[in-house]
Design goal:
The protein is α+β, with helices and mostly antiparallel strands. It contains 8 helices and 18 strands. The chain is globular, with a radius of gyration of 18 Å. The relative contact order is 0.19.
Length: 320
């Protein structure tokens, strides 16, 4: 068996991971200055990771990193702080500080250029984030070369880069959003969200569980983090990869302890169930995955470990 190839049956056996009656607490958009941050002149050295998957070219792009206190109570919200600190120490991590990264993904199929999520955008640049568009351009993908922008869900760190001032950041792009996700935020009347995505609705295709973005890229319902959160199965020439978005947002706390509550999850029990299902499939099929908040380049594997999973970062698997 190769590094990527197993049948699609195992991965799609869990299709339809949706949980019903989810309630998402109100959230607010980040409000930082629109000051520009300088981007690296060498995007492929530390800020952009480029790999091949069959006939596809995939780039993971660091939109920036944000250090802060934690991981408790953001992760392990329902646990004692000591339990979270102990887990961090066991994994050679600081007990009371962590760094959150933000990693959009671009897939060039050869026929279309598809961007998954848009990072923080202008509002993040005063704090060293919002680097996506500039780094993509340095890597050879001008803003007007993006054909489709897929939004895995509608949290601020995924939709913040949709606009540059009054103009769409990717002016030639069409958009794909999960129908359940859009319906939820629309019904909630979430002004900040709808101000960002509402004006793009005429250029948006709304999809459900099991529907393709293009041939080889299929959406799966993975609800819990938000009511319409979606992940994506990527396949080209028999090689496979999962794009898991925010199913797990800390490579230790969310994977080794998948049942621990996460503050940003709308339905915490549904999110935990989804984590177990999604990463159980990925571990069983031994395929790589990209997670939006995994340590950059956000690319790796998982294996069963105790009552959860262990994250194994990718090294040279994609270079040989």
């Amino acid at each position: 068996m190769s590094r990527f190839t197993t049948s699609r049956r195992g991965f799609f056996a869990g299709a339809g991971l949706a949980a019903s009656s989810l309630v998402l607490p109100a959230s607010t958009m980040a409000t930082a200055s629109a000051q520009e941050a300088e981007a690296s002149d060498m995007p492929d050295q530390g800020l952009v990771r480029r790999i091949g998957l069959g006939g596809f070219t995939i780039l993971t792009v660091s939109d920036g990193m944000r250090p802060g206190d934690g991981p408790h109570p953001t992760f392990g919200e329902d646990q004692d702080p000591e339990a979270v600190a102990e887990l961090m120490a066991e994994n050679f991590l600081p007990e009371t500080r962590f760094v959150n990264g933000f990693t959009p993904t671009l897939i060039d199929t050869g026929n279309e250029v598809i961007l998954f999520d848009t990072g923080m955008g202008a509002n993040g640049r005063a704090n060293g984030m919002g680097r996506l568009r500039g780094l993509l351009e340095q890597a050879g993908y001008a803003p007007d070369s993006i054909d489709t922008v897929v939004l895995t869900h509608l949290h601020p760190d995924h939709i913040g880069g949709l606009w540059e001032g009054e103009e769409p950041a990717f002016p030639e792009a069409d958009y794909v959003i999960g129908q359940a996700e859009y319906d939820h935020w629309s019904a909630e009347g979430a002004e900040n969200v709808m101000n960002a995505v509402g004006p793009l609705a005429e250029r948006t295709r709304f999809i459900g569980d099991g529907e393709d973005v293009v041939s080889g890229i299929t959406g799966m319902a993975a609800f819990g983090h938000t009511p319409g959160h979606m992940i994506f199965h990527i396949e080209s020439d028999g090689e496979r990869l999962a794009l898991t978005a925010d199913t797990a947002n800390h490579y230790v706390a969310s994977l080794q302890r998948p049942d621990w509550h996460v503050a940003f999850d709308a339905d915490k029990e549904a999110a935990a169930q989804t984590r177990r299902q999604v990463f159980g499939m990925i571990a069983a099929d031994r395929i790589p995955f990209i997670g939006y908040h995994m340590p950059f380049p956000a690319l790796g594997y998982v294996e069963e470990f105790g009552d959860g999973f262990r994250y194994v970062p990718a090294t040279y698997q994609f270079d040989v």
